[in-house]
Amino acid sequence: TRLIKLETLWSAIPYIKLWSLTGRDIPLPPLSTQSLIVAKLDKAFANIDRQIWLLKMNIEDAENMKKSVLEESFQGGEYVAKKLWEIARFIDYRWKTPVKTDSGIPLITAKNIRSWYIDENPREYIAESDYLSWMTRWFPNRWDLAFTTEAPLWNIAEIDLDYKIALAQRVIVFQAKENSYIPWFLKYHILSPSFQKTLFEKGTGTTVKWIKASVLKEITIPIPPLPRQHEIV
């Protein structure tokens, strides 16, 4: 056990000595002025609280509007029902952990995939010499879709990166087969409330929800002709 002087602890933790507090003067106006100050502050803070509440409501309304627009955009029109595995190649390295290095080929994990976009931070790497031996299940291309299979839950974003990347845990990349869809169409469809509801119903787990690739592959997607997909996007 290492003994530490109290003075050492106090220097690391902010504190105030009682004598320095009790010896400090405080401007004390008459009670009538104190009441005016309190009333003014009460009114100001009540207004601030209201503005915070309105901002939260506006954000909630905007999110609901986004969901409504997404859902309505996929209604009606001609389409062919296709299972995900029929239209997309799955590039999946979810259950493997690579040897990480301080530099090399950037590694994309679930932590990098936000809803709508890929965040390049936090940065992790694998050695360039390990790239080919690691990426044995196919290579992601620019504009392929990266999807998180568990926490953060079911985020999806196009890979808008112009350099080589490696894939790691909890990520599946969708790569279009035979020009069957445009990436942004599939991204928006997966973000729609009805598809998210399907993912939730077919997901596994109670504390942490996740979905098996074998289950994900069998989910049906209504695929309209490419011109209609462009209109929707």
Helix content: 40-55%
% residues in beta strands? 15-25%
Number of helices: 9
What profile does the largest beta sheet have?
A: 4 strands, antiparallel
Number of strands: 10
Structural category: alpha+beta
Mean pLDDT across all amino acids: 87
Which series of helices and strands comes N to C? Answer: HHHEHEEEEHEEEEHHHEH
Distance between the first and last residues' Cα: 65 Å
Question: How is the largest sheet built, in terms of strand order?
Answer: 2-9-6-7
* Shape verdict: flat
The low-confidence parts are none
Taking Cα atoms only, what radius of gyration do you get, to the nearest Å? 27 Å
Notes on the structure:
- The chain contains nine helices and ten strands.
- It is α+β, with helices and mostly antiparallel strands and 233 residues long.
- The protein has helices at 6-12, 18-22, 31-73, 84-87, 131-134, 183-191, 193-202, 213-217, 226-232, and strands at 80-83, 88-92, 100-101, 105-108, 125-126, 145-148, 156-158, 166-167, 171-176, 220-223.
- Strands 2-9-6-7 form a four-stranded antiparallel β-sheet. A four-stranded mixed β-sheet has the order 3-5-4-8, with no helix packed on it. It has a two-stranded antiparallel ribbon with strand order 1-10.
- Strand 6 (145-148) and strand 7 (156-158) form a beta hairpin.
